[in-house]
Amino acid sequence: MILSYHSNRMERLLDHLLEQLSTPLGSPLGRETIVVQNPGMARWLSQQLALRSGVAANLEFPLPVSFTWNIYQAWLGEMPAESGFDRESLHWCIMGLLPGLLEQPAFAALQRYLEGDSGELRRYQLSGRIADLFDQYLVYRPQMVLAWENSAIETGTQDEPWQAALWRAIVAQTQGEHRAALFDRFQRMVARGDAPRGPLPERVSLFGLSTLAPLHLHALQALSQQTEVHLYLFNPCREYWADITDEKGLARRRARWRQSGKTDISALLDVGNPLLASMGQVGQGFIDQLLELEVIETELFEMPAETSLLGRLQQDILELADRRSADLVERTPLEQMDESIQLHACHSPLREVQVLHDRLRQMFDRLSGLEPRQVVVMAPNIATYAPYVQAVFGAAEGARHIPWSVADLSAEESSPLLQTLSSLLDLSSFRFAASQVVSLLEVPALARRFAIDDEGVERIRRWVRESGIRWGADAQMRGELGLPAESANSWDAGLERLFHGYALPPDAGLAQGVLPYPDIEGSDALDLGRLAALLERLRQWQARLSQPCDAPAWALRINALLADFFLPDSEEEALLQGVRHAMDSLTERCLASGFDEAIPIGVLRCELEQALAESLPGRRFLVGGVIFCNMVPMRSIPFRVVCLLGMNDSDYPRREVAPGFDLMAAAPRPGDRSRRLDDRYLFLEALLSARDCLYLSYVGRSVRDNSASPPLGGGERTDGLP
């Protein structure tokens, strides 16, 4: 039996969780298992539990996927820590299998797509899209995947035959069981009443999950027959709201009824609160799924204060009220200067951040006791705003300074060293522009490798500017680009001037047609030699990286590249170790999937960047100060002030372009994930997690002609305002 607790306030759910944890487990060494949807929620829970009880120890915070895997392991026995059917392994397996399958008639469309000069990179990208889809099928369409293995077709669409054939080829080549097979075996064991073979946690709590795949819910239901399962659910509304629909959905139903000749029963359907109906479909679907399980519900709802516009809006959602209805025409008076909900139209992202800084300073003066750590600023893609945050918040000094931190940047976005590594891997398109080469020396680890200090970097920058170096390594490189093979203003010509200037007296004049650069003497020659060594090494690696090789050879080659260009300190060494680990993982996946082809540098670069973005995420959530972060599921952690930047109609909700061969998109089912619906629910969660102020900002005017642009949803989100 699952014990579920519903509340519109995370604080109330936390109180009940703390009360539950105060009852000790049977074993003093037993660990509390709290399943969360993302690491940010785990960090907040740890902080709050430590703050309220004095200590937060012996806790584990698994994510739903790993937790479900542990449940399977308890019933099915020993399983490998990693599956050969994970998304990354599938990617390389598909990459290797596609060339041998393209001759089959079912794969004709894929064969046409992969024709052309960039076929290898296209094959890599296509394999990634297919691997991602297959990974979703294993969770959301397990029966379809199992049907494919029995040579059956389930949907009958034109893209299913080639996907089924590809899947059978993957299964034939890959050892072990995938999640759909494990789920099928697990279901049969549970149906027979088989007891788990391994140990189970004594108590499991699931905190703040906004959705779970049906596959995970079935595993949770089976677990609840063996141990305590507590589900803490963030629920915007205390009324039954699983059957409400928004105005657009109501209009679509009316149109279908008219077309089919059926009786129009739209008068019996309820819109309820328009904001909840429009944005709550993810939570609505999850609550619908829970109704199919054996669940005992406990309500922990709390009525928001009605003294502000924000509080009234939250109260209307809680009570499923529509202020547009006749019985709610009378409105409670508000304060004359109610600023609990703010909407700012700006001319650019930079201006958004500048206005935000000014308004936050006003809030710190106006809202009693407000601290920077009680403010969160979210955006659809915080990396877009990170440079502007640095420019505005980082430059503010004295009384204007507000402590701040940016979370959710990838390792490359937050590390100049990894950005430089990405540039080195792209040497095939490196034009040797003066600014490109000099900017490499601004990276401390690279400058240390070539023994060039800060004064040396400034000296080299001055030499490059005054000697006329602009771009191109030499005349040969320009000729290879289809341009006149001339060396004027190239690095070769510039270095020749610099070396002549050191070797000849200041008044030597032209020497063999070269005008010496006059301002190099003494120990300056050391930096000149080091600059020449850097350029020579860049040319060597430009040629070396252009040669494709297999994954093990690439691992050795990347290790050599790191040694040739970087001399890291302890912090930088950890980043480079992450690069080496990513290359080792790539080698293991390729060997396990049987992929032994030569990999071109374009494919290797994409793979390494993606691996680093996932393995070195650079999270800095809840580390103090105003928090800038991405809008991700279950960031419904309560803050006094919640700010949302980039709420542009063209950018949010974020568009999701599903592949044309996505079989789930062709026939969606309850519980399927939708990026667009997730984003709408994220907005609702943000609205309900604000305690004093909800601040919205968007680029509402063109910086060029001052033309207007609408906010998110073209104003739909304001329909439910009192």
UniProtKB/TrEMBL annotation:
PANTHER family on file: RECBCD ENZYME SUBUNIT RECC
MF terms (GO), sorted A to Z: ATP binding; DNA binding; DNA helicase activity; exodeoxyribonuclease V activity
Keyword Hydrolase carried by entry: yes
Protein keywords: ATP-binding, DNA damage, DNA repair, DNA-binding, Exonuclease, Helicase, Hydrolase, Nuclease, Nucleotide-binding
Signal sequence extent: none
Additional notes on this entry: In the RecBCD complex, RecB has a slow 3'-5' helicase, an exonuclease activity and loads RecA onto ssDNA, RecD has a fast 5'-3' helicase activity, while RecC stimulates the ATPase and processivity of the RecB helicase and contributes to recognition of the Chi site.
UniProt function note: A helicase/nuclease that prepares dsDNA breaks (DSB) for recombinational DNA repair. Binds to DSBs and unwinds DNA via a highly rapid and processive ATP-dependent bidirectional helicase activity. Unwinds dsDNA until it encounters a Chi (crossover hotspot instigator) sequence from the 3' direction. Cuts ssDNA a few nucleotides 3' to the Chi site. The properties and activities of the enzyme are changed at Chi. The Chi-altered holoenzyme produces a long 3'-ssDNA overhang and facilitates RecA-binding to the ssDNA for homologous DNA recombination and repair.
Protein's GO biological process: double-strand break repair via homologous recombination
Quaternary structure and partners: Heterotrimer of RecB, RecC and RecD. All subunits contribute to DNA-binding.
InterPro entries per the UniProt record, alphabetical: DExx_box_DNA_helicase_dom_sf (IPR013986), P-loop_NTPase (IPR027417), RecC (IPR006697)
Gene3D superfamilies (alphabetical): 1.10.10.160, 3.40.50.10930, P-loop containing nucleotide triphosphate hydrolases
Family from the record: Belongs to the RecC family.
GO cellular component: exodeoxyribonuclease V complex
Protein's UniProt name: RecBCD enzyme subunit RecC
Provenance organism: endosymbiont of Tevnia jerichonana
